[in-house]
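Structure request: SPT20 protein, Sula dactylatra.
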Amino acid sequence: PSTPRHANRLINEKSPYLLQHAHNPVDWYPWGQEAFDKAKKENKLIFLSVGYSTCHWCHVMEEESFKNKEIGEIMNKNYVCIKVDREERPDVDKVYMTFVQATSGGGGWPMSVWLTPDLKPFVGGTYFPPEDGVHHVGFRTVLLRIAEQWKENKEALLENSQKILEALLHVSEIRVQGQGSPPPSKEVMATCFQQLSNSYDEDYGGFSKSPKFPTPVNLNFLFTYWALHRTTPEGARALQMALHTLKMMAHGGIHDHVGQGFHRYSTDQHWHVPHFEKMLYDQGQLAATYSRAFQISGDEFFADVAQDILLYVSRELSDQVGGFYSAEDADSYPTTTSGEKREGAFCVWTAEEIRALLPDPVEGAAEGTTLGDVFMHHYGVKETGNVNPMKDPHQELKGKNVLIVRSSQELTAARFGLELGRLSALLQESRRRLSAARAQRPRPHLDTKMLAAWNGLMISGFAQAGVALAKQEYVSRAAQAAAFLRRHLFDPTSGRLLRSCYRGKDNTVEQSTVPIQGFLEDYVFIIQALFDLYEASLEQGWLEWALQLQHMQDKLFWDPKGFAYFSSEAGDPSLLLRLKDDQDGAEPTANSVTVTNLLRAACYSGHMEWVEKAGQILAAFSERLQKIPIILPEMARANAVFHDTLKQVVICGDPQGEDTKEMLRCVRSVFSPNKVLMLADGDGAGFLYRQLPFLASLERKDGKATAYLCSNFACSLPVTSPQELRGMLCP
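Returned structure:
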């Protein structure tokens, strides 16, 4: 019988990333009091390693260094070693990443930081190769040198770490200056549009040459810019930039043409060769963005992509109980007998494999044409592989093909002399066969932890797609996930959210021994999701919960002195800094999204102090918004909505009535960034009527479903025809 493998303390954790390191020879501790006490008691430095389960270089560093017995011994002898999953503890990650970026000019994961016993950082970096090379110092050498310094120059190190901390506090502070006010909307919108326009890739879309990230925040800004400048040439360009980028991404290799969903980002300018991990937060935001593109353009292409993303999430990232998993890894074993994993192995193809799967002759095409020929032409497959060696430094993709749509269906159909409908059916059948073949390959690792914030983004994706595509099943899936959050990531006695829960044995849901409390982003993304879900389902219970959470968010995170919200709550002695994020990146930053949340919350509750708070956040970020709004496109968008005042679209009618449904369909078919929808169903005892007394004065005209457009609780004249309503929504 095989002897049980050595295990360190991480064996008792729930995070899949921490569990991956449970059998390293390194004596890892999770972030917590036990490790801190040991460091203090033994007067040892702490080595902190931060990563996440789909991080390629984290796997590499583990294979090379953390699984190496000798390096493990050096680590155990000289340091207390702590491993952190940054997705579980974004607060810890952010503090030390701020340090690494400030001292080395770059950042990333795995993050490697050396701390004094009182948790102050003094040296940091990212990935270290194990041994010295011509141009770099190896991890082993760094470990020994720092241990030596601690023995020789302890006082100097401690003093230095104190200075570093003070400098970081100063640099990272975001606060309102004097009698600050929100920056003017016109200028911020114009500057942000100009900065995006200047960095736009005219040929392939996107806002950088390479690598290229999906960045839904940029696209959402452009949609709002278009909606507020529909008749100007700039407005037209904003829409064209957004739609072209979404088209090119959907055609590219970043989009999984066989297994659906989107990979993390593209390593090249053409959206062709991606890093293959798939993240929940990308799927959630992109589903919403593609739905919006359909709502605006009416082009079914965008609706199809949104449905494709939601199919992937329903099939691969959904827990039976209703939550959503975090991510699918990039690396996997090429075959069941392979000894080592390769990046992209699950998703790539040789020309030979495709020919073998698609040998059928195609009727109506030139003599000898097979299904394989048609498929390979359409998806850019080459006999020797279609990956540029420059984009494949480890030669993991040599001879392989990453599928990319190289020509339109019309051109492919014309080339083979086929009707368009026929070609479409042939490509669909080909993808089905490739999908079945792929199912035989070993799957990449699935990170089954469920995070409150990312679940929030995914609920918004399902709810918004349900609205724009008029698909009730998406709204139901969103509601199922929201119920899951309320059951597993919310504590009704304290009224607080939890950060994460985990898939246990036999599809149970487990919680760690000491549950991680929710961070600002958990509140913000869930509140946004609940507002989206209310607008999609008109179930008032979701509104009630959203407003409760908003009060709790104010209590835990608001900075009454400098304005805006801190990312984490006060009172955790192990956190050296309370920070405010200041960039909309792969995910929007919480302060950006919360501006719109607060404006929506005020519309549904009549609490005008929430509008004031929204203005105070914009004031705190005013300088950034005026100089470099391109790093805060979501906040720039929210600033425009703030100045433009939200319009309450109130439909008075019987929820089951056909006339009410027709009015709702009209509201939902229009993209309007500054509308808030509510249904006044006549139930005076209901939540909305209790919150908003003015609703009682709105009547159904001639007994028909009637719409009012209200601003600051003063309403327009009633309209009863969808055509009139559409005219009011799109002036």
